[in-house]
From TrEMBL, chain A:
Keywords: Cell inner membrane, Cell membrane, Cytochrome c-type biogenesis, Lyase, Membrane, Transmembrane, Transmembrane helix. It comes from the Bacteria. It holds the Pfam family Cytochrom_C_asm. Required for the biogenesis of c-type cytochromes. Possible subunit of a heme lyase. Residues 314-638 form the Cytochrome c-type biogenesis protein CcmF C-terminal domain. This is Heme lyase CcmF/NrfE family subunit. GO terms for molecular function: lyase activity. It is a multi-pass membrane protein. Residues 89-294 form the Cytochrome c assembly protein domain. Its main location: membrane.
TrEMBL record, chain B:
InterPro entries: C-type_cytochrome_biogenesis (IPR051263), Cyt_c_biogenesis_CcmI (IPR017560), TPR-like_helical_dom_sf (IPR011990), TPR_CcmH_CycH (IPR056413), TPR_rpt (IPR019734). Keywords: Cytochrome c-type biogenesis, Membrane, Repeat, TPR repeat, Transmembrane, Transmembrane helix. This is C-type cytochrome biogenesis protein CcmI. The keyword Secreted does not apply. SUPFAM superfamilies: TPR-like. Residues 146-261 form the Cytochrome c-type biogenesis protein H TPR domain. It comes from the Bacteria. Its main location: other. The lineage of its organism: Bacteria, Pseudomonadati, Pseudomonadota, Alphaproteobacteria, Hyphomicrobiales. The keyword Repeat applies. It holds the Pfam family TPR_CcmH_CycH. PANTHER family: CYTOCHROME C-TYPE BIOGENESIS PROTEIN CCMH. NCBIfam families: cytochro_ccmI.
TrEMBL record, chain C:
It is found in: Cell membrane; Membrane. It is a single-pass type II membrane protein. This is Cytochrome c-type biogenesis protein CcmE. Its main location: membrane. The keyword Metal-binding applies. Heme binds at H122, Y126. Residues 1-7 are cytoplasmic. Residues 29-152 are extracellular. It holds the Pfam family CcmE. The lineage of its organism: Bacteria, Pseudomonadati, Pseudomonadota, Alphaproteobacteria, Hyphomicrobiales. It comes from Microvirga terricola. Keywords: Cell membrane, Cytochrome c-type biogenesis, Heme, Iron, Membrane, Metal-binding, Signal-anchor, Transmembrane, Transmembrane helix. InterPro entries: CcmE, CcmE-like_sf, NA-bd_OB-fold. Belongs to the CcmE/CycJ family. Heme chaperone required for the biogenesis of c-type cytochromes. Transiently binds heme delivered by CcmC and transfers the heme to apo-cytochromes in a process facilitated by CcmF and CcmH.
Length: 658, 365, 152
């Protein structure tokens, strides 16, 4: 009964969304506040319907209702509760339902923000948003119905074991909040185009959405990367897999958007470009959904493979991207040009940031889609992997990172490059000293690592430098400076922290060059050494759990002869699906990790084992956490900001000493 | 019936959500225009910052000037008063209400009618009970498997599961399951015979040395085990010992009750062996047309002789001959294969392994 | 600077970055793209030793051999031919004889492929896409249904 009501609620949501699409647009055209007032009311009703449908499906999962096909295919009565719940979105149909649920939720948030969003903008935005909802609801109801019934069966087929993992339980929601958050900025951009009006108020409304979506997307990508690192047992953390790229592209475009909205909010400039970026970012999010959901790529991540659905999503993709670009071409010339600025200025630096990010995004786009296009056109199959991206993406990102601290220090409207450089002398000096010291200590080792760590250090110090110089100058007492620093806008702190997070990640990535690995065939008592870490195979034990059985290799880890503790790596067999998986054993030592992955167990009791030591590897994901935290902190800043055009003159002597 | 009442109530609530804002006479009343409000608070913010000392006076002045400029512009652009009165507005409102009243219920019922299952009762209609039984069967297997995963030493479980596997075509699993059953329940003639049979099926009808050992053990435990004796006879036949096979088959026939289910099969075997020129079909349990096999085998042989082939293909040819009972040809094929693959060490190994499996010992170099 | 000059500066900078990016992409396309070949393609296309590519096909039953310290060799076959693959490392969980596999590496000599990565299918019903296509082209593999029947 509940399942049927849930299904019907979804159908109702479709009708309501259609109304939410048509009536407010009409109201905005005819200037009728009553018709525009339909938008928020129906947005709330849509949320209620979709929320109810989602709840109904979740209940079916929790109660193991094996008369619902989706539950049978992805659940099992012995599965732990958390995976019963995460199983709801651990499959194609349920994940699309989660997608529209978030969409409706965000729509409802826009609907209730009455006093900050102008009526007409709100009506147009909710109408555009309803159009997206209609498309995806149709897709769910027609091509991927999660409520399909079957004759009840006794037991379900269990969730793909790779997905039975806490990381994967929260990865899709994080990613979707990111993707769908950009749908709101997209809707606002289209609404601005429809209305032919865009200003700082618009940027002010859109900024929290961009920030929030960006923070969640950052978390989602980091979570996915960490999951691939420990679950796939290959020891890598980024594979330039098309599915990973599918989430990286909106992230790059979203990062650019985040920065250009700042320019727009503070200086009323870069309007057309910001609109274009908002459209691009969501288009790339849709593209990501298409790539993952359609099955055009077959990779570790895509758990739904169905070309028929693919063509449906392709239709949605074409309609929305094509429609929004047409709208852009038609209406963008109407937008009034904004404030002026000199090339060397904060705005100029942000333009450079946008330029590099957009170009880097384009190279990822080419690397991801070229193989698909080539195969369609010529039938030739190629693969584009890490070497391609190292050669194209890195040369674009590294200069951007080098310029980042300068841009952050430049004044609005017109800046002075030399003066800025002077303020960064200390950060630069320390970074260079760190690089040289590391080069000396690790002479003979890889050069990349010290250079990368130097860059990361520069990023972190440069970000902190901004806070320091804004609150402390020569002669200021520390207490005063501290009070001043604490009084700085939270968005300033957020910016500094997020940029420092980039530095942290860069250090983690650079340090991977120092990683060591070893491969061996071992019997009980044998030892294997990677760098200064050594493991001994203590014993092999079979173990049986509710839904799998496993062979565990128990290892003793020691560092320079000192024993650090036990590590377990296992081969699991998930019984219901008869599917084997490898669980890597990971021991965190400081910020580095000892990582062991079990190979085949031979009949003579010997095992294959791969051992890695990865120094500072945790920094890669910690950096992402710091970035997201910076974003969140900036999000809590509800102040209104305006770029003070001429910064107070800082005496050149006041270079802060650290 | 109850379900329809619930669905109707939901529809009514959804339609009301749209009609309610349309019923109000003058939209939402807004105290402030967010556009100008934004710049006003921006100005206030600058002043607060200046007082706190976060902005220098010169900065504050410049910022204020800019914000004030924008405020003026925003004031000029105030939304040209909303119109919500008069005849056209009323007509628009009626049209929108009609739209909501029709689109929402019609669309929802159409879509739900096409894809939903309002009459779903939870019980299985009789017509598809069988389908359910089949699904339940798979589920039952899953349950037994799960049970065995946690109690791998339950030999009874393995013994129950093994024939099920065979029926499902999971022959290798069946072999393993019988093996486990023997390990935990101990050897017993019937069990050993079944084990051997599963191995024969797994090898496409060839009685391997391993399977033969199982059958021999079975017969040693229980001389009357018909299945084991039958396969031993076949083993002899495949080994080329036709006379031995014949006597084994006749033995089996003479000690069996006349109405035993295997009697016709044994008779058939005997008559086949009796007629030397027969096509020697009836190899593995999965019956394939004998003509087909013969044609396939001769085709393969011709191709291999003419253009050579991989070790795997040669091995397949050897096995095919053995299954057809043409041991001399199998041995000849082995010889040819050794010549053809003289330089391929791995290939030779494959051939030797196959020769050993087929017990083509006489053909060894 | 006038508005026009500023715009020109901007366009110039954008053009420069885009030109550099385009150059990099074109250069990388020549250098880092890896082609996909089936065993039959190696002869047909006359792939020269030293070439890096992805090899896909079925793991030949009975061909897997393990040597010292995780040295592994197996054969990858399609309907027409097969090639020996040597690999040092751990095989993926779903590596099976008779199942689809994709290996990336370098052709050492016409009969031996030295792999540095081996990917197997990711679940019970999945065949690496390239492999499935290549086999289908040769009329060998017609979907799972038939394959599982043959396995019997």
């Amino acid at each position: 009964m509940l399942v049927e009501a849930g299904h019907f609620a979804l159908a109702l949501a479709l009708g309501l969304s259609l109304i939410q699409f048509i009536v407010p647009l009409w109201g905005a055209r005819t200037n009728d506040p009553v018709l525009m007032g339909v938008a928020p009311a129906s947005a709330l009703a849509v949320l209620a319907c979709i929320g109810f449908a989602f709840l109904a499906l979740t209940t079916a999962y929790i109660t193991s209702d094996f008369s619902v096909l989706n539950v049978v295919e992805n659940s099992h009565s012995t599965k732990p509760l958390i995976y019963k719940i995460s199983g709801v979105w651990g499959n194609h149909e349920g994940s699309m339902l989660l997608w529209v649920l978030i969409l409706a939720l965000f729509g409802a948030v826009v609907a209730v923000s009455k006093n900050t969003v102008p009526v007409r903008l709100q009506a147009n935005t909710l109408a555009v948003q309803a159009a997206i909802t209609v498309a995806f609801l149709l897709f769910i109801l027609i091509a991927s119905n999660p409520f399909t019934r079957i004759t009840p069966v006794g037991e379900g087929q269990d969730l793909n074991p790779l997905l039975q993992d806490p990381g994967l339980a929260i990865h899709p929601p994080l990613l979707y909040i990111g993707y769908v958050g950009f749908s709101i900025t997209f809707a606002f951009a289209c609404a601005a185009l429809i209305d032919g009006r865009i200003d700082a108020v618009w940027a002010r409304i859109v900024r929290p959405w961009t920030l929030g979506a960006w923070s969640f997307l950052t978390l989602g990508i980091a979570m996915g990367s960490y999951w691939a690192y420990y679950e796939l047992g290959w020891g890598g953390w980024w594979f330039w897999d098309p599915v990973e790229n599918a989430s990286l592209m909106p992230w790059l475009a979203g990062t650019a958007l985040l920065h250009s909205t700042v320019v727009m909010e503070k200086r009323d400039a870069l309007k057309v470009w910001t609109i274009l970026l908002a459209i691009l970012t969501f288009s790339l999010s849709l593209l990501g959904t298409f790539l993952v959901r359609s099955g055009v790529l077959t990779s570790v991540h895509s758990f739904a493979v169905d070309p028929a659905r693919g063509s449906f999503i392709l239709g949605i993709l074409v309609a929305f991207i094509g429609g929004s670009f047409a709208l852009f071409a038609w209406r963008a010339p109407l937008l009034r040009q904004g404030g002026l600025f000199a090339p060397v200025s904060r705005e100029g630096a942000l333009v450079v940031n946008n330029l590099f990010l957009a170009t880097a995004c384009a190279t990822v786009f080419i690397g991801t889609l070229y193989p698909l296009a080539l195969e369609v056109l010529t039938g030739e199959k190629i693969s584009v992997g890490a070497p391609f991206f190292n050669l194209t993406f890195l040369p674009l990102i590294i200069p951007l990172l080098l310029l980042l601290p300068f841009g952050q220090t430049l004044a609005w409207k017109r800046g002075n490059f030399l003066g800025t450089a002077q303020r960064l002398y200390a950060a630069m000096g320390l970074a260079i000293v760190a690089t040289l010291a590391l080069l000396a200590v690790t002479a003979g080792g890889p050069v990349v690592a010290p250079l990368g760590i130097g860059l990361g250090t520069f990023l972190i110090l440069g970000s902190l430098n901004e806070i320091v110089t804004r609150s402390w100058s020569k002669g200021t007492r520390l207490a005063v400076a501290w009070r001043k620093a604490a009084g700085l806008p939270r968005s300033a702190w957020g910016t500094a922290i997020a940029h420092a997070g980039v530095g942290v990640t860069v250090i983690g990535i650079a340090a991977t060059a120092w990683g060591v690995e070893a491969l061996g065939t071992m019997k009980v008592g044998d030892r294997l050494k990677a760098g200064s870490y050594e493991i001994r195979l203590e014993r092999l034990v079979p173990r049986v759990e509710a839904n799998y059985r496993e062979d565990v290799a128990l290892l003793m880890v020691s560092h320079n002869g000192r024993e650090l503790g036990n590590l377990e790596t296992m081969k699991r067999l998930y019984v219901t699906r008869n599917m084997p998986t490898t669980e890597a054993g990971i021991m965190t030592v400081g910020l580095g990790q000892v990582y062991a992955s079990l190979g085949e167990i031979q009949s003579d009791g010997s095992i294959g084992l791969r051992l890695y030591y990865k120094p500072l590897v945790l920094l890669i994901w910690l950096g992402a956490l710091v970035m997201a935290a910076g974003g969140a902190l900036s999000l809590t800043d509800r102040r209104l900001r305006i770029g003070a055009p001429a910064r107070a003159k800082v005496p050149p002597s006041s270079v802060p000493a650290e | 019936m109850v379900i329809w009442i619930i669905l109707l109530t939901m529809t009514a609530a959804a339609v009301m959500a749209v009609l309610w804002p349309l019923s109000r006479h003058h939209g939402q009343n807004r105290q402030v225009d967010p556009n100008t409000q934004f710049y006003r608070s921006q100005l206030a913010e600058i002043e607060r910052d200046q007082e706190k000392g976060a902005l220098l006076p010169s900065e504050a002045e410049a910022a204020k000037a800019e914000a004030a400029r924008r405020l003026l512009r925003a004031n000029g652009q105030q939304d040209a008063g909303f119109v919500a009165v008069g005849e056209p507005a009323l007509r628009r409102r009626r049209a929108a209400s009609a739209l909501a009243l029709s689109v929402v219920p019609i669309l929802a019922i159409a879509i739900y009618g096409a894809y939903g299952s309002p009459h779903f009762q939870g019980g299985a209609p009789i017509a598809i009970k069988q389908e359910a039984a089949k699904l339940d069967f798979a589920a039952a297997v899953g349950q037994i498997e799960a049970h065995l995963a946690s109690n791998p030493e339950d030999g009874r479980g393995w013994e129950v599961l093994a024939p099920v596997y065979l029926r499902m075509g999971r022959v290798d699993d069946a072999v393993k399951a019988y093996g486990s059953a023997i390990r935990y329940l101990g050897p017993e003639a019937g069990r050993l015979a079944n084990y051997g049979e599963a191995m024969v099926l797994a090898k496409d009808g060839v009685v391997s040395a391993e399977a033969q050992a199982a059958f021999e053990q079975a017969v040693a435990l229980d001389k009357s085990s018909a299945k084991a004796r039958f396969y031993l006879a076949r083993a002899a036949e495949q080994d080329g010992q036709i006379e031995k096979a014949k006597s084994a088959y006749s033995d089996l026939l003479s000690t069996s009750p006349a109405d035993a289910p295997w009697v016709p099969v044994v008779r058939e075997q005997l008559s086949r062996l009796g007629a030397p020129q027969s096509d020697a079909a009836e190899a593995g349990a999965p019956r394939i047309g004998s003509d087909d096999i013969a044609r396939m085998v001769s085709g393969l042989a011709a191709r291999l002789e003419a253009q050579g082939g991989s070790a795997e293909e040669w091995a397949r040819l050897m096995r095919s001959y053995a299954v057809l009972g043409q041991r001399d040809k199998a041995a000849a094929a082995a010889k040819q294969a050794r010549q053809a693959l003289a330089k391929d060490e791995a290939g030779l190994k494959t051939i030797e392994m196959m020769a050993r499996e087929l017990k083509l010992t006489d053909a060894e170099p | 600077m006038t508005r026009k000059q500023r715009r020109l500066t901007l366009i110039g900078a954008a053009g420069a970055v885009l030109a550099i990016a385009l150059g990099l992409v074109l250069y990388a396309m020549n250098d880092t793209i890896v082609f996909f070949n089936s065993p039959a393609d190696i002869q047909a296309k006359n792939v020269r030793p030293g070439t890096r590519f992805r090899l896909g096909g079925l793991v030949k039953p009975g061909s897997l051999q393990r040597g010292e310290s995780q040295q592994i060799s197996f054969e990858v076959m399609d309907a027409e031919s097969s090639i020996v693959v040597r690999y040092r490392g751990l095989l993926p969980d779903l590596f099976r004889e008779g199942q689809g596999v994709v290996a990336e590496g370098v052709l050492e000599n016409p009969g031996v492929f030295r792999a540095d990565t081996v990917l197997a299918k990711h679940d019970e019903t999945y065949m690496p896409r390239e492999v499935a296509d290549a086999l289908r082209r040769q009329g060998h593999w017609q979907g799972e249904g038939k394959a599982s029947q043959q396995a019997k």
